[in-house]
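This part of the workshop introduces the protein records we will be handling. An example says more than a description, so a record of this kind follows:
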Amino acid sequence: MLHDILFRVRALFRRQSAETELDDELRFHFDHQVEKYVNSGMTKAEATRRARLEFGGEEQVKGECRDARGIGAFEILLMDFRYSLRSLLRSPVFSICAALTLALGIGANTAIFTVVNSVLLNPLPYPHPEELLAARKNDSLANLQDMQRQTTSFASSGGVNIEPMDFSGIGEPVRVHGAFMDAGLFQTLDVQPMLGRWISPSEDVKGGPRNVVLSYAFWRDFLSSDPQILGKAIRLSGNDFTVVGVMPRDFGLPEASPDVFVSLWTAYPSAAAERDVHFMHTYWRLKPGVILTQAQADLAQVDRRLAEQFPDSEKNRRTILVSLHERLVGNVRPALLVLFGAVGLVLLVSCANFAMLLMARGVARQRELMVRASLGASHRRLIEQRLTESTLLAIVGGAAGLVVAKLGTSLLLSLKPAALHRFQAFPMDARVFAFVFVISLLTGLVFGLLPATSATRNNIADALRENPNSTATAISRSFLQGFLITAEVAMALILLAGAGLLMKGFLHLRSVNPGFNPANVMTMYLQLPETRYPKIPSQTTFRRELLARLNALPGVTAAMITDLPLAGNYVGHRLVIDGRPAPEPGTEPEVQTLSVMGDYFHVMEIPLAAGRDFQNTDREGQPLVATVNQEFVREFFHGEDPIGKRIDWARQGEPHEWMTIIGVVGDVKHSGLNQPVDPAVYSLYSQNEEAWRRWMTLVIKTTAPSAPLVEEAKKQVWSLDSQIPVSSIQSMDDLLAESVAEQRFNLLLLAIFAALAVALAAVGIYGMIAYRVNRRTHEIGVYMALGAQPRDVLRLVMKDGIKLVLRGIALGVVGAIVFTRLMVNLLFEVKPTDPGTLTAVALLLAAVAVLACYIPARRALSIHPVTALRCE
């Protein structure tokens, strides 16, 4: 009773003389401001009014000062800003923690937004990009030329295919990327060369001159930026090409950045003449006023005419046009949006921690708020100043977030995701800076409002009269903390669930049998120039001699194949089977075709399921033979024994040159571990009549170190032909890792975001429990003085936190079930609602949260009852 009376007397005295009860630091700054204004020429009364206004004076004081000195709203804002800045500088630990908390959330969001901005929002780097369209499927040059002539909706169109070329004559021969194009490509993209001119339509014909346009990078790196390069010749794939132009520094094709640009007719005339060689990316520019649906209808009529005229190759053709922007970003958009949503949850967790930091600071500054209120500060003015402080902190956090974002985008580029291969950098333009400013401003205002309102809800009389641990403000503050912790845990669990699903899908993907053994296998790419190896015999001689030399090396077994597994590229042929009714022309099934030489299946350890492997007696001049994979047997023979059956490529004219199936080998994943296996036919280089298959990949198995092996293999190639580049040198293990690089990239980013969210949530839980232990020191002391056991104290301290964590986990599971459905396209053989994953991440988060509760609760056991009671 006596204690209560003394407390009320002290409270009454403080209400009556609050201005004289300022703490030393606040009084010092207040007096300093008064003295400053007096020295500037104000009277003592005017200076006091103005200082009170800066320290939170109420509206009538503002009115007096405005009348006296013309103070407006902007100057009031500056006063609040200066006061907030001084206040934050006096609390450097709090300021740094709050700014870093936001820097992590805002920086991660800015990094992903910078990528989204560059990939999805920025226009393509071509004039009038809204007029540019692209076909979803590749087409042939012959079809493209027919469509150009027979349509009226397009101002221009062009096609291109990227093929390797050999550049020689300057040092070691190297492999470069050549754009085999038609003359309409540059006109369609409407980009002028930096030097010289385009390849003209009159030159883009069969037998036309060998002219070349160089990329800026090729001109700089290989030709030393020679300003007199126009008219000079360079040697590409055994032929001399005359340089007629150099493209600008930042020019690249929509889907690639080739080194040189040549006419398809001069670089690959045999493919240019074939209507059924659908390997060109085609681009179209609409005429002004023409819309996509009109252009699509125009092309549909041409498709029908071509299907009727060339049923063997074009029977079921359908050209679908989309905007060029959609063609480029359509595949990457879902993953980017999922990552953007995930990083948004990280920001919300950061903001929740930020709000709790502000609430804790509000409690620590309760006396200051009471004094400011005694000086006449209204409830609205106190909130304004608290919001100014939180907004200033958020803007500082946003500025630090720009540094985090810059580091983040550099990390993204270092990971080299295949979906973003077109981008060399992700610049931060005005849209990115506006995004940072807006998100920082909103963070400061929105997440500073609740703590500011909570800290200033009670008036000065109530605050002085009541125990802070039992007031409505404390209850409200406790409720707000609980809400924020629950939200943090829920959002962290959603991110953990997403990362867990990607992890499970990735593990399933890596466990897929590729159909071969990648261990101790090195690969390298070669291509024979047409000028020196125009026919099959000369090609076969080179391949056979090279394999003999490589196999003579100690511990080496070598073979070769046209296209490596998991490379994603292969040539398809339409197929007919001897003894079965011939399908209607154009409807024959298409299979994957691969040429091999040497003991390829043994080197790659591809199992032989039936029949026999190729032998040395299977060569030119002997009966044609082929080996097929198991998927081929399942699709075309349905349990029937294929050994001895005959197949051939579908052609016009007779007689057929039948290949006899001599063996069945295991299925190999050529298009990717997450892609189905296609029916495949393996034939011999020496027996085919496709002289255009001049490329090959060496496959070398050895137990020796790879670096010496590669150098020795190069020497053997150059001993046969010193002008052939050896490129794409990599192990099959590396190729296997590259095939899942996109999935690994998505998993890594989401795992980082999830780990960041869990860490922030754990910090928030720890801070909340530590804060409550500090506020309940007296209660804990009484509890321990009455004989409570350590486990009872732990239960008392931890129970509220664990309740909030369980509530957050329950909400997070519901949220995960809803939001992970958006990730269905990113998952491999995993359902978005996989119960095992949801259970595992919930238990993991619960364990982290319990630990975050336990550490500060454990500290409560060290409180001495006497010390705790003395705190009251």
Residues 1-25, 57-71, 463-473 have pLDDT under 50 and may be disordered. Residues 318 and 756 are 48 Å apart (CA to CA). The first strand starts at residue 132 and ends at 135. The chain has four domains: 2-70, 137-319, 333-511+742-870, 529-723.
